[in-house]
Prior knowledge:
alpha/beta
Amino acid sequence: MPSEDVLWQHRAFDDLLDELEKFKISRQRIAEVVARLMIAAPGRPAQTEIAQGRGLPVPFEIPPDSVSRATAALSTLNLLTQHRPKADRPGRPYTPLQLGSSRWAMVGVKIGHEQGRVITLNILVVGLDGIPLNLPGYQSGDEPYIRDIGEGDDVVEALGEAIEELCDLPAVRHRTILGIGVELAGHVFEGEVVQASLDSMLGVQLGRQLSERLGRLADRFDDRRLTHERQPLPVIIDNDVNVLAVLETYRPRYPERDIAVVAVFDEGVGSGLIVGGQVYRGGRGMAGEIGHCHVPLDCDALAALEAVSPAPEAATSNDAALPADPAGDRRLPRFHDPCHCGGSVHLDCVTPIRILGQLGERSLAEVARRPAVAGNGPTREGWAFQIAGQALGIGIAGLVNLLNPSRVLLFLPPDLAQIDEPGSAAVLYRNEIIQTLRKHSFSDSATRTELEIEPFSAEQRRFFGAKAAAVRVLDSFIQHGKHRCKCYIPRARPEPVTSIEADPDQQVGDEDLVGIS
């Protein structure tokens, strides 16, 4: 059983697992079966396939009778659907199993931001298998429901209104909501936004506030008597790239179990770390914050770029078309401008927006296609993309040297990932990433670490961000069931601290300085 300090987000999960354990099956086994069903989705495996671990990166068997008891328990609470037996392959007929039913749903939210402000809510309602529900006029199989947020709007209230609107639709209103998943750019820990590029969210207990706002959805657990007493609606807040890494663990496209997922967005760079098949978040949820690592910039290249780039004031020649920041300054930030966290020369200072700011341009697609070299040397675009590619390569090399992942999955904006014109700035950018990664990686990781570059558009980010946030809810349920969450780690009780006032007349002698250097 968990410690006394069950995370508030997991209390409903804990009660639900208690109900399932009445079928003489452990919560660990239930969680393992749920995980295998999620990995198999949208396929509908048979019990024998679940027991064998078919489809797992590293298959291992679990007892068939345990699978049978787990599926019976899950079916009773409508967490699993047993379809009609089929005989479409050799052997005896089998019963296809599907995670979830018309009685359950999850909600995922991707918070869209620009220059420190929340601008959109991208919301997706899915079944327990992660497949989006059909909600005409709101969402489709590849497009979330999008709600714009005005400056000054209360984000929690806007989230609550939008989620309730979706959950009151005929196709959803009779479903119990397993939980709400929310992803955002920044450091979050147990529902609190500790540090983020969203100025208005800093220090906000977003998880608790949203759970309280959506208390009516928690009543659906009570209506079905699935909890011992009224519990908070589970709201799981996580970093935007961490949830993409979670999604990778449930759609294992690669055989490796140690993968670094790195994503380059317009205004920042993030990473999620998959270690042993699980997403690693560190002691307080901050693991993988590659964007705030200090990266040395090529001083010679930067000096050459500054020599051929327009002065900052000239970079506003296209002011009318450039996005404005909250202060009204229409000049996009340059490489040496402070990071949004206040630091300097971070990897977040060498992003696509910073490239455009450095060049005084507004179209990434246009500058990425321009020649990187002209005449006897690099063009200004060549210098800018060389600096940015080298910085990203150094950042990824740091991850490789620390964690030794078998594969690095790098998501880039399509203009940086797909433009293949020989000699273009985009090709130079990718080459600099690869060469710098090899140069700074230790031992044979320089050649043995697989680097996979995939395009990741703004539309994909909205959809997969919302979907991954929803799947993060099920992942949280599974991790709690497997005893892998902080609920099972006894919290240290701090000793009472006695306040001692300093005596201004007391002097520190040499004997008090022993061992201090």
